[in-house]
Amino acid sequence: MPTDPPDRSLTWALLLGRWMDLARASIALPETAEGGRLRSGIAPIIALQAITHALGEIDDLPPDERSLALDRAELLIRKHAGTLHGLWRGEPMPTELIELIDDARTALHAAVCGGIQWLLVSDRATFDHPAPLGMHLLEQGFSGDLFLPTPGVVMFRDSIVAFVRAPQGVAGDTIAEIDAWLSDAARTRPPQAVPIFSQVYRQMDFASGCVVRDAIVPEDRLVGGQPLLVPVLLDGTLQSVSIRPATGAELPDIEVVQLRPDDPDNPPTKGQ
How confident is the model over 90-146, as pLDDT tens digits? Predict the structure, then answer.
């Protein structure tokens, strides 16, 4: 979440001091091929660190400046990463620099695809049809994506019960509206920023017909199971959400798990 201005200023001041120390230290690098590459790479190294940090604060920008800032960040990351790859062409790049480039790309991806999610604190809960909330947000000018639980399907503790994102960032009023809608049915943890939308899949043992678990999986992965979060709004367009019979309350408590990327039950989607 955005920090207060004094905290942000202090952080940038500390970073500036570290970058100045790094620039001064580069002068003393040995006159070797590796030392020359590092000296030439100091500017893009500092620039990538600055972009990564700035992307973490992009929600502080006015909505009409966000898209331009993201476009500039993408171009600068590509430029500075290309410079570093060029310096180490034909030679193995240091692991630290690979991680630096990955951090910048991850921060950009989070700024573009990330959003706000809510986790359930109550042991179980079912939610009403979300159409009234979706229509109200549209009236307020919301133009992003909103995912909420399938109406009448029981959700269990630690499950994701809401996710929202928007091209210009999610306004505080929108977060408050969703928070109030959720609190009518259950208790949730305070909303938190996340770098990617994760779906909740209800997985079953088809031999017995029993529910095994609910698995939380990032949207760039695909697993078997019934997706429990339905799109209410996509790109600011209201979606059709079917009404399910409220039979979920008959389920016994089941485990909610977060699948790791290397989990054998969580293979990459096609094309990855």
Answer: 888 889 999 999 999 988 988 888 899 999 999 999 999 999 999 999 999 999 999
Q: Is the same domain home to 104 and 122?
A: no
* Last residue of one domain, picked from the residues 64, 80, 113: 113
The values of phi and psi at residue 216, to 5°, are: -95, 120
Beta bridge partners of 258: 216
Pairing mode of beta strands 255-258, 210-218? parallel
What's the Cα-to-Cα distance from 74 to each of 48, 60, 80, 107, 194, rounded to whole Å? 11, 18, 10, 10, 19
Q: With respect to residue 267, please indicate whether it lies within any of the assigned structural domains.
A: no
Which of 16-25, 68-77, 223-232 is predicted least confidently?
16-25
Output the CA–CA distances (angstroms, integers) from residue 52 to 10, 72, 76, 210, 255, in the order listed. 17, 12, 11, 45, 36
Match 């692991």 to its residue by tokens: 95
Closest CA to 259 of 225, 209, 211: 225
pLDDT in tens, 68-80: 888 999 999 999 9
- Domain span at residue 16? 5-113
Report the predicted TM-score, pTM, of the whole model to 2 decimal places: 0.69
